[in-house]
Queue: 2 jobs
Job 1
Amino acid sequence: IATLYVVATPIGNVTDISLRALHVLSLVDAVACEDTRNTAQLMTRFGLHKPLIAAHQHNEREAAETLIARLQAGERIALVSDAGTPAVSDPGARIVDAVRAAGLRVVPLPGASAAVAAISASGLLNDQFHFIGFLPSKAKQRDTMLQQLRNVTATMVFYEAPHRIVECAAALAAAFEPTRQVVFARELTKLFEEIHRCPLSEAVAWLNADAHREKGEYVVLVEGVAEAEDAQDAEAERILALLVAELP
Ligand code: SAM
């Protein structure tokens, strides 16, 4: 039946494609993709050949109309981005929204996402995370946003481009307590994968210690603010203990 499959693709290592993704990519009538050349390469790698439809951030609205018309005609279509999970700091959300609004079926095929891969290997003990993705590129807007994040207790997850990574680390170190832990997850699933954890105060020095570190893709995790002990709760517990001690 007519379905839009939202298919996660690898973030580096092609063998991270799922069996289900390969199955669905082999049965759909067309694949809507962020960059047709990129997706053609991935498809060829697995011996798959399907019509490709361009669906990038500059044509999402028109692409949605095209896809809806094809789905209404009974087609099955896969939606992929260049790497990882579509609609996560990637195009796709508008298309999914429009397809759902048209009453058509949307099915996710989970797989790689840089954010989740980084969290899983970071060792930061926190079951809450706050996904931010890319910070604004303008320094003033970036710093305003970081100030607004100062009291977040969950681990924060940022995406950053290699040419801005040092500047980003300096901005994080300036905005948050220097003792907070930061994790740089670089080139995940690729040959030069590197996962480094240190206090924010040491972040810039670590990046500058090796020229290669200004290349490659990064997920940056920053520990949330330490939860201040709630003074009122502590006082209530103290009084309760006194009362309990007096009970027969
Ligand atoms: N949709 C993708 C996902 O699910 O992870 C994210 C796409 S976003 C346009 C690209 C950013 O994701 C990069 O700038 C980088 O911050 C992060 N990223 C993607 N692949 C990565 C990898 N192999 N290692 C580290 N970070 C990666």
Job 2
Amino acid sequence: ESGKKVTVIFVLGGPGSGKGTQCTNIVQNFGYTHLSAGDLLRAEIKSGSENGTMIQNMIKEGKIVPAEVTIKLLQKAIQESGNEKFLIDGFPRNEENRASFESIVRLLRIVPEIVLFFDCSEEEMEKRLLNRNQGREDDNIETIRKRFKVYMESSLPVIQYYGNLGKVRRIDAAKPIDVVFEEVKAIFEKVDA
Ligand code: UP5
Ligand code: MG
């Protein structure tokens, strides 16, 4: 591998805050490859891999899959993409995820440029998830409550960690999709400049 610079932007925020929706918009406008850790894990379940059952059980319980598993899937997707600009959506979700990623990334010359933080109330996120209707096994009220708890206890501290490094760009994610994207666009116009 040559010394090409790889740019990674973490897209974080609670369940249903609009990470996936906004990543689709960013891809269309700014040439990034969107890697949703949750989508990669769900594809792994479907593929019938040996980890599939473990992943399925953890998602049903709203728990966080060990970094080793998720990072392997991310690395594979990065290599297959041929791109050098990535949105990593929904990862890292806890301290273990973050520390593992950072130790690998140092060797690969990958710098997490900024962290987009989609900030949204639980009330609004719950409403969105219950209305989504895409057959996700974790979009039931019981699992949604567990996801919120894990988010508050384990994922928010990761966002705070990057906040202390001055990397977080907070976005009011409770607004309509197009209004949120206007805010996102302004941030990317600076990143790419
Ligand atoms: N919607 C979006 N934006 C809106 C807006 N501004 N106004 C009104 N409606 C809006 O959006 C959710 C719904 O809201 C959609 O119907 C959309 O149209 C509407 P979406 O863009 O899908 O939100 P997103 O933040 O992507 O929600 P998602 O449910 O995907 O977030 P999660 O973080 O919960 O899910 P993820 O797939 O990342 O993870 C699922 C599980 O996988 C985790 O709980 C965990 O068990 C596991 N996981 C790991 O273990 N490790 C990982 O690294 C990643 C996941
Ligand atoms: Mg998503």
